[in-house]
Structure formats: structure tokens, C-alpha cells
Fold each of these.
Amino acid sequence: MKTVFEKLPATAFLLGEQPVDKATVYRRASFCVVTKVGDTYIAYNTLTKELAELDLREADALEAESVIFSPEYEQLIRGYFLVPQNHDDKKLCDGVTVFARSAYRGSAYRRFTVFTTTDCNARCFYCYERGIKHMDMCDDTARRVADFIVRASEGEAVSITWYGGEPLMNTSAMDIISSALSAAGVEYTSMMATNASLFDDALIKKAVDLWHTDRVQITLDGTREVYDRIKAYSDRESGFEMVLSNIQKLLDCGIKVNIRLNVGGHNIADMHALTNLLADRFGGRRGLNVYAALLFDECEWASRGSTDCDRYELAKEIIKIEDIAAERGILHPKKLYRTVSHCFCKADAEDALVITAEGKIVKCDFFTDSRFVGDVESGIDEEKLQDSRLLYSRRIECGGCMAYPICLRLAACPTGGCDDARKFMTEERLVRSVRYLYASAREKR
Ligand code: SF4
Ligand code: SF4
């Protein structure tokens, strides 16, 4: 075994080396990924973050159901790639995660999701905000939001996610908050979840100069006809070309663009064409990244329509589409960060808050009319925040999943737990990232 990336210092310190017991029968740890790049077998430990090249015997040992100790496997055992048959992998992962959470220090909030409005000019049938009251953040509230962010960030740099609805339906809130943060000397960057149909040259310039936007996430549902049918814009017949042109302009201005392909039974047939269209138009463009997402209660929608739903089949198609996107240079595998994961999303992150259009504070952007933990006027209600911490502290049971120490999905996430489809996609993407990590390391040698 030849180490390419050492264990993280934190996991090396916490776990040390696993003792070797010559009388023990071993098996591959659930948090060990084995794959091949070219002719080379590699193993990645998602708990310790060690990446290693393997010889053939070591690769065989990790593929076997069980292995009896042999001196050749000593490094695999010491590095927690092989663990005793009866080892509790989940307990070990949980211990490391708990330590990482407790090591988190600081009272400042640094990540804010701000709902500028709950209104939207699109009417996607799958939008989870359908049926909720439409309202814009008023200018007074925007000023209070800025004051709150100044107080809560305690002099630290902040990142803001402009959210909605369609955040560009209320640019005034973004202007007020950004100007106030600048005036108060708060360093900030922002990203935006937008359909991008409302951008024009002046707004793109403002995004760069005033809102300090360095990233946008734009959802595409298909090629022109499918896209326009699903988006069902209230203010235009077609938004497809406008959005593609705005993607180009955003990239030209140095704003990174993540394109999220929302996939379900209703549009899967169109996704290959869309991927190829995007690759023809944007392939090789710096700052562009495409990924696909399986609509989370696709089966429920499908049962209302005529589409047969098999989430697992959809998941397999999604991975194929992503593979094509990667080959054509518009998808970059997710980075495997050299840190211990300790949270899943903003709901269980200690430094993140969500601010509604009314100035209420919540932890999860799915719940904007309940589960408040404070408001921008009176600040955080510590008792309610503690309740929220408890609610979002429980993870779903993920025994045996190689992604577990990274994924950490919450039991209380309203988008549901994990099923075979989700697990398949997560594991496939993880393997893709491992291969990419190794290939990049090899290039640098
Ligand atoms: S992919 Fe699913 S099973 Fe695996 S860690 Fe994430 S939530 Fe758990
Ligand atoms: S709990 Fe689920 S819906 Fe809420 S912020 Fe986290 S991932 Fe999003």
C-alpha cells in the first residue's frame, strides 16, 4: 500500500493506528471505497481521508468478504481500511463526528440564507413553495436584516444566499442589505438560487459590484419545449434562450454558474439532449458546473400523472447523464475536502441561519412559517435554537454505506430519508470524486 494522501491530522490524532490482532478475521470497513484508475487499484477512507494505491493482493483483500490476518495486510489494518468482522463502523464514525462538532468554536454566524421574496415568475409543478403566501421583504425589514447580520457576524466575513421564490423579483432587498453591509465594513460574498430569466446587463453588473455575487445556481428542466412547459412563466411565453444567454453573460463576468438539472419521470427522456446542448454551448467554459437532482417525491407526482415511477431506474439514468456531462467537461466531480464532516446542511450547521421575507429566523429553508428560532428585531431565542439543535441532531440510520461519515443526512429533513436510489447516486458520485482526486494527485506528481 502506498499512501497518496495521509490521514487527516485530526483523525490520526483521534484514532491513532488500529491495533493489529493476528487472530482476528477482518473485512473491508464500510467507509472504505475501492476503485480503479487505469491499471491502478486505489482505496479511499471516507473517515480518515487517507488515499492509497494498492497492490493486487491488497485490492483482493478489500474485495473479499473476510480475510485472515497476513503481514501484507498490516498497513490496511493500521489505516482502518480493514476492520474486525464484528466492528461497529457506525459507532466509530459517530464518535469522530461528535468530536468534530464539539471542536467547532465561535459564536459568530457566517452564513445567511435570505428570502428576498416568496414570489416567483415561474410556476414549476414541483415547487415546494406552491401554495405558500406570496410576499416581498419590505425595505424596513431589509434594513433590520442588515443590522442583524452585522451584529450576528461579530466582525467575521459572511456569505449570503439570496433565496426565494425568485430572489430577482425583489432586488431592492438585496440592494439595501448589501449597501448596509458595505457601509458597516462587513466583508461579504453572495450566491443566488435563481431561474436567471430576470437578469439583464444592468442586474448582472449590480450582482458583481454591489451584491458581491460569485456564484449562482440555476435550475434547468429540459430543452426549450420541455423547459418552457415546466417553468410555465407568468411573464413570458419562453424563457429558455434568455436563460442560456444569461448563463453566458454571468460566466463572462466571472460569476460561477451551477446548473441543476431537476430530473423526474416527466423529463428524463429529454435530459441527454439537454446535456449535449449545454456541452456544445458551454463545454470547457471556466466556472460552469452541471449536476443532476432527482426530484424528491417524484413517485408522488408520477402517481398523479401518467408516468411510471421507478426511482432506482431514474437514479441510474441520472448517473449516466452526469458521466456524459463529466466527459464533455461541464461537470466537475465534487471535491473531497480534507476536513472531518460534522454537519449535513444549514439546519445542523452552527454558523448558518435562514431569514424569511418577514424577518423571522429559521434553521431550515423548507420551514419559513414555523419552527422559528428568533427574528431580526429581537435576535436569536436561545431556548428555541436549542430545541432546533435537538431536532436536527439525529441522523438517519445508515449502516453499511460508504458515504456515511461524509453524508450525515438528517432524520428530520423534510425532503425525506434515504432510499436505494439516493444511496446509489451518493455512492456513485463518491467513487467518481475519489477517482478524480487520485487522477489530479497523479497529474501533479
Ligand atoms: S447516501 Fe443514504 S445511506 Fe448513505 S450516508 Fe447518505 S443518507 Fe446514509
Ligand atoms: S433539513 Fe433538509 S430541507 Fe432543511 S435545510 Fe437541511 S437539507 Fe434543506
Note: The chain has a mean pLDDT of 93.
Amino acid sequence: MPKNRAPLTLEAIPPRLYLSENAFLGVVLSAVEVFNKECLGILMGYRSGGSGIVVQRAVALQSAARTPREVRPNQAARERVHRALDSLTTLEQPLGWFHSHPAQKLEPALHRLSDADCASLDQGEIEVLTAIWPRRRSRPWSYSPRTRTLSGSLGDYNLKLTAWLQGAPGRRPAALEVYCPFARGYEELTAWVS
Ligand SMILES: [Zn+2]
């Protein structure tokens, strides 16, 4: 076979999630605001080609019923928001949801989706999860490619973010690579004042 006819190996590249400054701040400030209860909100943005998901905006849903252990979305409110967004003629689309898992310390499962979380995700939807617990010592923001977690300190809290994509129905959501240049910049910014 001639060289230029070599078959391409088309491997499925897990999409990378790009978190804008707005989206990052929306997600982490919501988690801090309602600690030690869970926050819940909607993610907006767009899918760029095959391998990128760009989250431009994270808007907290104010009508969510919060307890320390679970957050129950107001389904009617969720649908109202969806309909309102559908009527917007913008490139931004609803991509999925974000919520938080608060605790007094980092527990092993805190940055993993619960069974109920997995069940509530529709096919193609993404979920950004923030594990949050009171800060004992300050940590600069950093990303671990191995665990696909973005973690660092904000105010009196430590936070650990993960992103998930619901693929085929019945399968567990897949962990996405998270790319957030702002969080890195945030480390550099706070280095000036700490
Ligand atoms: Zn959860």
C-alpha cells in the first residue's frame, strides 16, 4: 500500500472542557456562597468541532432546594430556563449543569458523581462538580492530568473541580480533561498578595 494510503487510526478523542474565567468564577463562587449546602446551576457555551467543549457561562439556579447532602432542582424552573435559552439566537447553548459536594474535610468520594447525579444526566450533557471543604492550608490552583482534577484555594475553602460527560445511556459519565487558563492566572495573581 502506498504511504499516502495508510489507513488513518481514528481513535475517539475524549473531549476537552475549556472553562472560561466567567464560568470558573460562577461555579466556584456558587459553591462558596451556599456552603455547607449544595449549589446547582446551568452551564452555557458551545461545542467546537469534535473535541472541544467551551463553557462560557455558569448561572446558578436560585430556586434549587438545598440540603447539606443533596440538591433537588426545581424541575419547572429548569424547564423555564431551558425554554428561555432556546429562544435566544446566540451561539451559546445549554451544555449541562454544575453542582457542589460540600463536606468538613476532603473525603475519597467527594469529587465523584453519586449514583443519583449520574442518573440525572441526559445523554450528551456535561456536569461540572465542585468538591468543597474548609481550608486548612492554602493551595495554589493546579491541574492534575492523572486524576483530571483542578484544585486550589479560594477564601476560606479548598476546592476540587471535575468535569463529566454522559455518553451512551446506561454508561457511567466519562471524566473530561479540564482546561482553565484563568485558574492558573489566578495562582499568579494571588501570589502577589499572599
Ligand atoms: Zn452530587
Note: The longest strand covers residues 93-102.
